[in-house]
Amino acid sequence: MRKKWLIKGAVLLAGFAMCAGMAWGTEGVRISKETKECLGCHESMPGIVSQWEDSAHWNAGVGCFECHKANKGESDAMDHYGYTVSIIVSPKDCGQCHPRESQEMGASHHAEAGNILNSKDGLLGQTVGGEPAVAVGCRQCHGSIVKTKADGTLDANTWPNTGIGRVNPDGSKGACSACHTRHRFSKEQARKPESCGKCHLGPDHPQKEVYEESKHGILYRAFEDKLNMDKPKWVAGQDYYDAPTCSTCHMSATPDQPVTHDVGTRLSWDLRAPISKRTDNSAKKLADMKDVCSSCHGAPFVDGFYMQLDGFVEFYNNKFAIPAQEIRAKLMDEGVISKQDFDDRIDWIYWELWHHEGRRARHGAAMSGPDYAWWHGIYDVAKHFYTELLPEAREACERAGKPQVYEEIIAKYIDGRPEHQWFTKGFDPKQIENIKEYYQDRYKQEVK
Asked: Start and end of every Cytochrome c domain (predicted)?
């Protein structure tokens, strides 16, 4: 790769040869004298040096000192063999050369990922779990508030991590290296779904697993070597056409849209919350995402897909999410359970119903993962709504000596809603007969 960049950039680099403070490296690229001194020691760490030498930064003459230099008085500034440097290269630092990308990242939901520390997720990790689990678990994806010592070195209780919502000592939020892994900072690597999979997988946000079972993921595995992910310009339908990756849909350019580092700019639904709502400016966001889809799909397909998704999300909201939330709230208001989180069994049931199962269902529907939409999603939501949440509500009311509260719940949320009446009245006999007739006709045998 180094030679390829040299051939392409030889003329351009020659024009910079006389820049003040710059010296020619041994292979013909301009390297500052400060970076040359860094390399004198850090060549004992050949991995990071070799990664950098294969990077676009190397070809542009951007070296160790250009990224790590700091000003005296900054909280993470440290004296390092006569130079003032900082260990963390923050989005603010990257923004000196990449201002648009840094600004978009800072305005994105990714940059706010550290807010988990002040949420119920944080309560689970830090209190119910424990600080060591948070350090190697939560913060590795969500980020920490990085603290420094008096000499500018970083507090090991808050670093290392490349959490996407990390709050850096300079006040900036985020970590560019969460996606563009140092020290190569490769576009190609960041475009691969595996980069997103470090954080977007698991029981509560299985986007990576959903993608893998979708037709998009199947096509990616089949044609990964044909996707030209190393190209500077990477426009779906022009530079590649066999499959999309995560970055295709959420970040990359189309013929009518530029690249964006605000990963939420095309999301018209909030699929993370207990009850899904449209995001701000959802019509524009939906139009932008449909524009991406249209690189490979016709309008009837795209419109039909979003009609199904909208119907699914509204169904999840109205049949399960809203009733579950209101049932738990009523139990609190009536004094059946406490208003503290995670001290009653129904708190845990409700949490997993929306936070794990409900999210799996919605993301399965949004990303064309049928198994996650149903078996890992709505099936689990329904099973635990009927066999755990409602029975626990009944038992809690009985323990509290308030059985009438459960009767009110059933009257309002179950008997009062036709989609739930099977739970108390049983299946419609006509429906059972229809199923029997279907299988008798299909398999030509009696069904008992």
From this structure: 232-353
Reference 171, options 67, 97, 92; nearest CA is 92
Give residue 216's pLDDT.
98
Q: What is the DSSP string of 327-353?
A: HHHHHHHTTSS-SSTTSSHHHHHHHHI
Residue owning tokens 């070809």: 59
Q: What is the pLDDT of residue 448?
A: 59
Helix (H) or strand (E) holding 214: none
Superfamily of domain 188-193+204-414: Hydroxylamine Oxidoreductase; Chain A, domain 2 (1.20.850.10)
pLDDT at site 22: 45
Gap between the Cα atoms of 83 and 63, Å rounded: 14
Tell me the C-alpha distance between 311 and 296, whole Å: 23
The residues of the chain scoring below 70 in pLDDT are 1-29, 445-448
The DSSP line for 95-108 is TTT-HHHHHHHHTS
DSSP secondary structure of 379-390: HHHHHHIIIIIH
In this structure, what token pair is assigned to residue 143? Answer: 């980020």
SS3 153: coil
Neighbour count for residue 126 (Cβ, 10 Å): 14
What per-residue confidence (pLDDT) applies to 417?
Answer: 92
Q: Which helix (H) or strand (E) holds 22?
A: strand 22-24
- Report d(CA 324, CA 420) in Å as an integer: 12
User: What pLDDT is recorded for position 446?
Assistant: 61
* Location of each CATH 1.20.850.10 domain in the chain: 188-193+204-414
Residue 28 has a pLDDT of 54
Contact 191, 247 (CB under 8 A): yes
